[in-house]
Amino acid sequence: MSGAIVNISVLVSGGGSNLQAIMDGVASGAIQGARVALVLSSKPGVCALERAENAGIDTAIVSAKDYPAEAERTAVILNRLAAANTDMIVLAGYMSVLPAEIVRAYRGRIINIHPSLIPKHCGKGYYGERVHRSVLDAGDKESGATVHFVDEGVDTGEIILQRKVPVFPDDTVETLASRVLKTEHEIIVLAVAICVNKCD
Ligand code: GAR
Fold this sequence. Notes:
The structure is a single chain. The chain is of the alpha/beta class. It has one domain: Formyl transferase, N-terminal domain (Rossmann fold, 3-Layer(aba) Sandwich), CATH 3.40.50. 38% of the residues lie in helices and 22% in strands. It contains 6 helices and 7 strands. Strand 2, helix 2 (47-54) and strand 3 form a beta-alpha-beta unit. The longest helix has 27 residues, at 173-199. 40% of the residues are buried. Glycinamide ribonucleotide (GAR) binds at residues 12, 14-18, 48, 92-93, 113-115, 127-128, 131, 181, 184. The site of glycinamide ribonucleotide has 17 residues, from helix 1, strand 5 and helix 6.
């Protein structure tokens, strides 16, 4: 670790509402002994970057378009993470699978939030709205959110926290996604606080 304060790098691809929950958690003291050191996006022009810039947090964009070769892209991400003295990584709506080299470099210090009750509706191809569509198609009566450690698989790492929400008969992908997202914002703050304590 780099000292008393745990440096968190948050990896994003979209709206950044979970990133916002983490930044708010740091500001309110719900997350103590940590700061968001870097927000790294896989895409340019996303709201998550705007949220980070508004909060004065360093940002980086490392896209597959700019770095089509995976090895080079991985090296650039690793450089950015190192330059930010990263102690812990949060995947908060990061829509790329994290390369194994990065998992190995930060093993046990990377967490991901997923919008379902893992092991249901997760793995390759299950992200964003697709997850909620799958829950509705399956006729599930409950869904939820999970925060887990990241290993070399997709959504296979040890679960840190999970919280359920009901699924109502008249739910659409949008209404279910919004209910789950609200829960995500609560458990991501709790999970980050737990992991910061372990990192410290
Ligand atoms: C969240 O629902 C997150 O769980 C999901 O993308 C959304 C990002 O929202 N992640 C995945 O589906 C990863 N498998 P946000 O950008 O507003 O935090």
